[in-house]
Amino acid sequence: MEGIELDVQGLHGNPYRLLLGDAKDYFVMQKKVQSKPMIFSDDIAPRVAPYIHHAVQTHGKKSFIWFGTKPWVILNEPEQIREVFNKISEFPKVQYKFMKLITRGLVKLEGEKWSKHRRIINHGLFLFFIFFALLY
């Protein structure tokens, strides 16, 4: 059902495949790219995110990939990214059951708790960056 809703919104991608979605192709392509030596050029997208790059080349800038049972919308335009960050309460983080077992802290938090912890961490990160800037 989600694939149809995404299509109506002008997003294009592969049809949903049971349970894994595009995850298998994603990891196969990632492994293939990492097995080759790195060529230094200005075009790093095929090296850093090969499957996402492939999806954008195949389906256009307004596209999505299936990661498991969830669609991941690919955002390319700064305006789109800004909109998501400005309306963070309307775009909740995807919660995977296994994430509770392996993650903690800021990654897992949302809403007011995230804001509070981010403010606390921000001062420490600022001092950290100043310290390293002075070293170099």
UniProtKB/TrEMBL annotation:
Bilayer topology term: Single-pass membrane protein
Assigned EC number: 1.14.14.115
Principal location: membrane
Major enzyme class: oxidoreductase
Entry GO MF terms: 11-oxo-beta-amyrin 30-oxidase activity; heme binding; iron ion binding
Cellular component annotations (GO), alphabetically ordered: membrane
Subcellular location: Membrane
UniProt keyword terms in alphabetical order: Heme, Iron, Membrane, Metal-binding, Monooxygenase, Oxidoreductase, Transmembrane, Transmembrane helix
Family stated for the protein in its record: Belongs to the cytochrome P450 family.
Name of this chain's protein: Putative 11-oxo-beta-amyrin 30-oxidase
